[in-house]
What does this fold into?
Amino acid sequence: MQPLMWDRRPDGLRAPALVCAFKGWNDAGDAASAALTFVGAALDATRFAQIDPEEFYDFQATRPRIELADGTTRRLQWPSVEIWEARVPRAPRDLVLLSGPEPSMRWRTFTRIIVDLAEALEVQLVVTLGALLADVPHSRPVSITGFATDEALRARTDLTPSTYEGPTGIIGVLHAACAEAGLPSASLWATVPHYVAAAPNPKAALALVRKLEGMVGVTVDASELESAAADYERQVSLAVQSDPDVQAFVERLERAAEEEEEPVDPTQLPSGDTIAREFQRYLRQRGPDAE
It folds into this structure.
């Protein structure tokens, strides 16, 4: 069986951009995958292909799931990468959306499949979405860093260049494959407060959506995501205010963000693990229906 499995082959895509997000290492606070899912839902995207997981996933690490259809019929759902098309008649281009868990193995083969798909669909730009943990306060605008291989695109989107060096995920390997194939690409990364790493972060997802809009020239109605982002910030603020140590830590981050102070000295402040535990305790006390 070929790894790339077509439901159908889309035709007539206009100057498409391929937008990718992967759950896992590249997706702090589920921000990148949530941003891509939101864009797909807002544009009524339809699936046209998927990548078979057999060659690329360790199923002990990324396990298949049992689901019940109509409450009775058991169905096995394998992890897979799904590929969707979004036609946007009033925009200058259409979108191809690719999402799924970060693969466990054979990354070079996996990214070659994506590049081959992009070339077959005459994709003009590949954009990846990611999110990383950082010493940033939840109360400030989300910082977006990244890069673009095209100088004009970098200037137009006013990206803060990333200076990161170190281990990379599938996103880094995909961009290397795009560069080798001569395919223009760009990467967008949202910063997520490390002290709320376990909670989904719609505020960071919204920031990614807004930056993506400017990069690809496609606009979506993000009012629902804006509301979720406001609720998130309010809930986290309440949790922070419930613990003086956490509040002092966040206030220090806020001052650093405003005044560009020296990085916070971790020996003088509560650890990220302590803050995360306190935040989870607060959420449990508030209950699942907390407003």
User: Anything to note?
Assistant: The mean pLDDT is 86. The two ends are 48 Å apart (CA to CA). The chain has two domains: 4-221, 228-286.
